[in-house]
Amino acid sequence: MNPRSVLLLVLATALAMPTGQASAQLIAVDPGHGGADPGGTGCGREEEDIVLDTSIRLQALLLGAGFEVLMTRTDDRAVALSARSSLANSRGADRFVSIHSNANAGTPATGTETFVSESPSANSVALQGLIQEEMIAAWGLRDRGSKRANFSVLTNTTMPATLSEMGFINHCEIDSPLLGSPERRQEMAQAHFNAIMRHYGRDPGMPPTGMG
Predict the structure, then answer these.
(1) Catalytic residue flag (residue 187)
(2) Which one in 13, 23, 56, 123 has a CA-CA gap of 20 to 30 Å to 43?
(3) What secondary structure letter does DSSP report for 207?
(4) Model-wide pTM > 0.90
(5) CA–CA gap between residue 170 and residue 103 (Å, rounded)
(6) Nearest to 65 by CA among 201, 184, 187, 206
(7) Which string of DSSP letters, residue by residue, matches 112-168?
(8) Confidence of residue 205 (pLDDT cuts 50, 70, 90)
């Protein structure tokens, strides 16, 4: 086969390849806190453990759907806020999804909310809305809304970024039992997965069941 024929064959193969197959999107998944910083605590639980487990479950779902995944931590270690955004930026992540649980002083609050930066991109806002919608559908907690804040991982990342607050760890009657349940954390991982898939125009379909 002459060089021109080879070139034409390569071009034809590339054009026939389904969209998104040539290169997978890299999703940065950021489990909040870790190490000496447990995050919110309450009802015998610590945020750092809950969000790490949820994030690892999300990682499994994303990998099963063909995404590439960059985890800012995979165990109980401290990672500086600046290091989280720097890692995602240096690796050219396509999206940044930070996962947290909430806590408050005084009478325990309840509900789910999602943040973007104070000057978000349109893609950040779109992903934020989908994540909030899917989390509310998953757990049915009070909808505290889509909000904006000057959080480091939202303002120092160069890609569209969100920060999820799944529920209040110190609300022992409602939110905390959901956060403490492996089965319910799987639902929340699924919610984030569904939102990311929808954000990319893909049907969540029947993803892997994840971890037991």
Answers:
(1) no
(2) 56
(3) -
(4) no
(5) 6
(6) 206
(7) EEEEE-SS--HHHHHHHHHHHHHHHHHH---EEEEEE---HHHHS-SS-EEEEEEEE
(8) confident
Contact by Cβ (8 Å): 168, 99: no
Distances (CA, A) of 48 to 24, 45, 77, 140, 210: 29, 9, 9, 23, 20
pLDDT in tens, 135-179: 999 999 999 999 999 999 999 999 999 999 999 999 999 999 999
**What does each C-alpha distance from 124 to 57, 85, 115, 157 come to in angstroms?**
22, 15, 9, 11
Counting Cα atoms < 13 Å in the Cβ hemisphere of 190 gives: 18
Asked if residue 131 lies in contact with residue 98, where contact means CB atoms within 8 angstroms, the answer is no
**Sign of dihedral through CA atoms 187, 190, 194, 199?**
positive
> Is residue 144 within 8 Å of 104, Cβ to Cβ?
no
- Token code pair at residue 76: 């109980």
Selected catalytic residue, list 46, 47, 134, 165: 165
Structure tokens at 108: 């325990």
